[in-house]
Amino acid sequence: MAVNNRTTKIRGLERVICYQFTDEYSAWEALQAPGSTSFLTNGEGLHDGNKRLAVLGDTILQLALCDDWLKTGKTRFTSISQEVASNDNLDRIGRKHGIEQFVNKNPSQGDHVSFKVMTATVEAILGAVWLDSGLDAVKRVMRVLGLVPVDTGNN
Predict the structure, then answer these.
(1) CA-based, 20 to 30 A from 127: which of 58, 76, 99, 133?
(2) Residue 4 pLDDT > 80
(3) Residues forming a β-bridge with 39
(4) In angstroms, rounded to a whole number, what is the distance separating the alpha carbons of residues 141 and 104?
(5) Whole-angstrom Cα distance, residue 41 to residue 1?
(6) pLDDT tens digits, residue range 138-149?
């Protein structure tokens, strides 16, 4: 079932990630696919969709993983990064949690959320959470979504 209302989409996302945004501007931007016809509260269109937040979110995801890795020293960081932050995993996690229903899609794509849009949206959500509350909040959202390494017990 597609969700169309801005507030409904943001509240739905908040329920999925167990996080309430204080700045809904970032949450709304995170849900924009490139070419969506939605506008931000200031009337500005987002022709590139959530790309800015996706770039930020990708970096924050790596930072959160590295921060935890430094504290545990388990396995190699590249293994953790490849496991958790791969586009395949981000797409899988986004679809598992039904995030596609909250994405403001490009009208030319119909109701479909592509692999690329889903991975960017998950990254953008992490970027929006970081802007809103910082790294600890991002780590909580990552745990809720399952964006954590599988503990192999290897050092």
Answers:
(1) 76
(2) no
(3) 45
(4) 21
(5) 25
(6) 999 999 999 987
Would you give the distance in Å from CA 34 to the centre of its chain?
Answer: 15
**What would you measure as the largest C-alpha separation in the chain, in angstroms?**
51
pLDDT band at 40 (very low <50, low <70, confident <90, very high): low
Kindly provide the b/e burial profile for residues 29-43, where b requires at least 16 CB atoms within 10 angstroms of the residue's own CB: bbbbbbbbebeeeee
User: What amino acid is encoded at 95 in this protein?
Assistant: R
Judge contact between 35 and 108, C-beta under 8 A: yes
**8 Å CB contact between 49 and 33:** yes
pLDDT digits (tens, 9 = 90+) for 65-123: 999 888 887 778 888 889 999 999 999 999 999 999 999 988 887 889 999 999 999 99
Distance CA 129, CA 90 (A): 16
What type of residue sits at position 113? Answer: V
Residue at token pair 């991002």: 138
Cβ atoms of 125 and 99 within 8 Å: the answer is yes
Q: Is the dihedral of CA 94, 100, 101, 103 positive or negative?
A: positive
Determine the 3-state secondary structure of 134 from DSSP: coil
Percent with pLDDT over 70 in the chain: 86
